[in-house]
Design brief:
mainly beta; globular
């Protein structure tokens, strides 16, 4: 938008309607309708693994929802997905793939994600350090059966974990391995100067 250009009232333009100061270094964020009520929420994850949910109902007054924010146990070894992993859940869940397995955290009504998650598997584990939490599309419907499956990066390969048919809590079984494709770069930011390796994962498009 240029002040010297003729005003175009009908043309699109961006403007700041609200600001919110948060502690910590933001490493990932996502907008989603967590409770399926037609109103979006903003999920912000910082480098230390704090997960905060903000209301977007009033865009002019952003506010953190009530409740204790979730703290990820292994933020440097975790990738995240906001998905409907279980048809019995009341909203989207935060599914975390970490060095200890896969855990799903439910959203509390009007609040934050539950601080206690339910373990989906301890066998499928992220095989390397990512440096900080990141949203990655690792939970997808590979077999087109309407159920989400898991693609687990291990280091030199991916593991494909398929959802086991049946009612009750989701269960997954490892189906096969696939060659991995990822890149990395050294983080040399002045405020976090270290030999930390930040891997950027690319989940492949599968043709099975």
């Amino acid at each position: 938008w240029s002040a010297d250009a003729p005003a175009q009232a009908s043309g699109p333009r961006l403007e700041t309607v609200s600001t919110l100061a948060l502690e910590g270094f933001t490493s990932a964020w996502m907008v989603a309708d967590l409770e399926r009520d037609g109103v979006d929420e903003l999920v912000i994850v910082d480098r230390d693994g704090n997960v905060r949910v903000l209301d977007l109902a009033d865009r002019a007054a952003l506010a953190t929802r009530a409740g204790q924010p979730l703290l990820l146990p292994h933020p440097a070894h975790s990738i995240l997905a906001l998905v409907d992993i279980d048809e019995s859940s009341k909203g989207l869940e935060l599914v975390v793939l970490s060095s200890e397995g896969v855990t799903a955290y439910a959203i509390e009504p009007g609040g934050q994600f539950a601080t206690e998650g339910r373990v989906l598997t301890t066998s499928g584990r992220l095989g390397f350090r990512v440096g900080e939490p990141a949203f990655v599309a690792f939970a997808i419907d590979v077999t087109a059966d309407g159920e989400l499956d898991l693609i687990v990066p291990r280091g030199l390969h991916y593991e494909l974990w398929l959802r086991v048919p049946g009612e009750g809590a989701p269960r997954f079984e490892m189906s096969q391995t696939l060659p991995i494709d990822f890149d990395h770069s050294t983080n040399a930011a002045s405020d976090y100067l270290s030999d930390e390796m930040r891997n950027r994962i690319r989940i492949p498009v599968l043709d099975i």
